[in-house]
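Reproducibility note. Readers wishing to regenerate the assembly model reported in the main text can use the exact inputs given here. Chain order matters: entities are listed in the order in which they were concatenated for prediction.
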Amino acid sequence: MSTEAEIDKLVRREYAAGFTTSVESETLPPGLDESVIRHISSRKGEPEWLLEWRLAAYQKWLKMTPPQWAHIHHPPIDFNEVSYFSAPKSMADRPQSLDEVDPELLRTYEKLGIPLHEQAALAGVAVDAVFDSVSIGTTFRGKLKEAGVIFCSISEAVHEYPELIKEYLGSVVPQGDNFYAALNSAVFSDGSFVYIPKGVKCPMELSTYFRINEAKTGQFERTLIVADEGSQVSYLEGCTAPMRDENQLHAAVVELVARKDAKIKYSTVQNWYPGDEEGRGGIYNFVTKRGVAHENAHISWTQVETGSAITWKYPSVILRGDNSVGEFYSVALTRGRQQADTGTKMIHMGKNTKSTIISKGISAGRSENTYRGLVRISPRAEGARNFTQCDSLLIGDQCGAHTFPYIESRNPSATLEHEATTSKVSDDQLFLCRQRGIDTEKAVSMIVNGFCKEVFRELPMEFAVEAGKLLEVSLEGSVG
Amino acid sequence: MTPAEQLKQNSVTLASATQPQDGLTARRSEALDKLRLLPFPEKKQEAWKYTGLNALTAGQLERAAPALDADADIASSIPSLGDCVIVIGNGALTGQLPALPKGLSVTPLSAESINDAPPDTFFGWLNTASLSDGLLLKTEPNVKVPGIVHLVFFNQAQTPCHTTNRLQVELAEGSELTIIEHYLGSGPVLTNALTHVQAGANSRLVHYRLQSESADSLHIGNLQIDQQRDSRVDSSQLMRGNVLRRNDVHVRMLESGAELTMRGVFIARDTSHIDNHINVEHVAPHCHSDQVYKGIAGENGRAVFNGRIHIHQYAKGSDAGLSNNNMLLSNEAEIDSKPELEIYNDDVKCAHGTTIGQMDAGQLFYLRSRGIDEASAKRMLGTGFVNETLHAMQDEAVREWATEWLGEAL
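Running the prediction on these inputs yields the following structure tokens for the assembly.
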């Protein structure tokens, strides 16, 4: 076993992405009213209909109250203390290409291991980098355009592809869907837009990297991915934030539309700043993610959640078309005083729809980790099939691991299975590793990696490596 | 006033009108104060998410059931299952107590003996607030009470009304007891049943809860079991559907070494609605619990199962399992299952599993191909599905009766 001093050292290990970037920013003063929304909209030169859409969302939001049902605890959020827009000044007159972007910004992403220079970038991954409220650049746009793929920030898409935005924005997550989605709809700043035309297989992985930099700001990005008939795309999302003592809000909305025969794979590695050991600071990650799968379509969510003080997130699939498939693979790791309430919803509406849910929760320290999921079989969903497996691993006796699945069936030809187990890192496994000269830290990390293997297997290669490492770093200091 | 507020008002009226001179007045008024603070159960509350109380009428909360007719023939409807039969009609003991087996005493609940922390639910408090006759079963230490004690709660009325059934079972250290809690009757009665079991150190209880009221009655029940060191409880809950049936079962394993086995079968056919809410709390270390529940919903029936295992922070070495298998037989029926785990200790072994499926077409075909008609084949498969649970019941007489009785509903 490690000595106490060693553990102490490891516990104090810094959050590697916790630095701040000093760029001059234009940040709106904290507070939210219609004028803030008008300002955001005019700043981005949005058309009138979008402003109306935002204001309608704001009106709905005003009538709503924050959800109380999740297994999380935090002091009430004062939404008037949050600043709803922040952009680096150098972005005021939009740079035309990445070469014109402030090198300080580019260095930030390099430091995070996300090179934005195309020649240096990982071959085959196009990146859209979002810094506070704006997108600072998108790589490989030319190459993607050749294939007919649209990949740009949502602000650009509003100008360049208004018909597409008008058709799909809010079609999966309506403005008044829930408290945080309504807030996002009112003040969303930037995010990515992807359109894959009919029959096209996207030639490379698409990726968005979100970075919160400015203090006291919230990030409200909106991602919209439309895969037209018979197309395929794999999309990755990563996120980090500096270490600060106050809690920052991140309320995103992600909408996926998979038309007939299309396939969307959406992977997330979430590493927002989780707060310190005492639970000071950290990001409140309140996210609404949902996809609609039409006939024969396939939507797959894979997430590795290691960051955020609080995670509240339920990537869902509405299986609208016959024979559509939904998948959810998740690893959620909490430590320190982190709280996670995450899971998925699979709404089976079409015939012979299938869904698979694999969720692995790991709790350490004094954290709380909850799986919450819904599987609903509507009366029309003949022959629907669901398999759910939720496993929890506890490290230490101060943490909590919870499972709250909702299983609703209204069709007798449907078959549903749900199983959940909870266990700890077994002494036998540890002993075996120690006996072979592997130290405890390393052994635990190996065992945890093995526990998560089913999910990591689903991640694109580059991300799988990153996720494995992230887990290792996150776990350090949890064992003793 | 919303319908829920109106029903709450009716409940308060009912409780306020309950004023027998029996020494429990203070307890009733405490409970009434609690009741006034609680909201009436509605779908927007998580615990009532799948069960609306629209089927309840004002009368069922407002009027206490009248005393049962003296000449009502109850005896003929009671199956012969136990050696000592105690009949409670519309909440009150009927006739004289039978001769009691050695080591068991049966007395009315008094202000001293009543447990002061009933289940913290609206109907739990309503039960105490409207209580007039409660029974206390008590065993002597280190005595094995011979035979089976068959408690029959017979509730019958022509007009909508409310009956309060209250039972408290206290097992002294080292004692053993087998009881059947049997609910019978007919008519638009709302049975509000509350049973509280205290299993003393090293005691052993075999408990059956049979719910066979006719289809037009309603039942809202609370069962609370508190287990002391090394006690063993084996509880079977069997129910066939009626308009509305809601059971809240709450087990607290308060001292180490306690063991619990719970099994249940619920069959919701026609338009019946059955909701089982089970909460097993491992408060102390090294306790063991095992639950198996089987549900069937057909026609327009609806079956709800919510089973929670809660492991407290210091309950190391807990071993808890829960399995809920369901069969959905028709397009109009619905099954909602919500198995939950809430765990605050790492040194535990916990698992739950849920399935919702249908009768296996291959098995049906096999039986049909051997000349068995469809209805019989379905009954055989249904019986096979629930029998796994029934087989584990310890008393043969009860097992046989239950197999036949449940078979009628398949």
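We highlight two features of this model. Chain A has one domain: 4-475. The mean pLDDT of chain A is 84.
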